[in-house]
Model the fold of this input.
Amino acid sequence: MKLKALLVSALIFFAAAPGFGASSEGVDLSGPTAVELSTLANKAITAGNKDLAIYYYSQALLRQPDNLEWRLWVAEALLKRDNKESALKQARIILEQQPENTRAQTVVAAALYVPPLKSKKQAEQEEDAAAMGSVPFPEPTDVPLPKALAAWVFGDLVATADTINVHNLAASKSQQIYYFFVPAGELGIEGAKLSLKFDTRAAMALSDALAGDSMVIPVVHGLSRGWQKVPRSEWERVAAEIATKIEADKRVAGVLFDIEPHVSVLHVMFAATKKGSHKPVMAVGGERLTFKYADVGVLKCFGFGARVEDSGLSMANSKGNAVVPELRVYAGSVASAVGTFLRDARAMGGKALIGIPFSATTHEFEESSLAGDGTRSRSGLKMTDYIGAALGWVEHEIQINDETFLGIAVWSVRPDGGVHEAPDKGWYFPSVISPDLWQRLKLPLIRR
Done:
């Protein structure tokens, strides 16, 4: 180590010395000749000691500054050691005598190159990718995943199944709902521990009540806030528990993780779940790597309009004013989000389901109610306008042979249309899939 430090110090000294440039005036040239020093440099290169070779060539150039071959070797060697300032100096001396020297031009370009600043998103993606380096990509499921419609299902599952059966029996195969997402549990974070409530009985009950082919997928909801304190072993433990439960009954077709916000450690859980089960693992949202760790990514095209907080709705209801999300913003956001989502899925070899709101949310509603007596306030918009915006990209952008696109997922199916006898605070209307919306789903790209 002392020898290396000495050589580096000598290198810096000679690189900065006046004689290391094009002139040797005022430099003591006694001792070995330039040829002898170059011979020593070649021996150092053969021995694998390039630092020593730089030193010997530096000394040789003090005696024979016009030897551009030696100077070029030094310039390139300095650049490889990230000594850009000294490398640039040597390359410029060469170009003064040989302006067309392409190797010297390359050294100058590399020494002057300043990499572009990374965006926060780019930095986060690189950090996520590095963090996942120790988590092997799981094998894709061997369960067939046909293109089809999907739907989230809430409320009375047996009654909902009747509604679905009536529709599926009357619809062509391309219009039938095949994938069903049923709430089944919550994932929570308590300090350094994960808490899981996961019950697949509702999914099994819906599967029993449905007629025809279907895949019923229980959904695990949760928040990832505080994930930094949770060790990897906890994510793997929870994944093993989920895998065991979905493997226990053939009526359960897989699992959908809906954990917000997405963080890279969720990939550990996806991978561990797939390790313990051959059934499909699906994940809401996420980013490019999600399509490597899950079989299907699900994008919710909800909330792309102008965000309306409860306080804003209260004001609108009390004064009778309309609160209208910006349709053009929504349409543009859908197109951008879906395009990025599908590109990521295609790049990573995954499949994507696109969720669109056939039921009202805080961002797409015709009427809303915050009052305990059920009084409603009109927003002044038509849900069909927003559904049309969400479906427009399908009709114009998606290619029929795009194997990445799995289908449309509808939010949501309820037997009562989602209307409670005593509306909860913040309930929005309509929450029922109307016949005209189903007509929009007669699309040729969904075939099976």
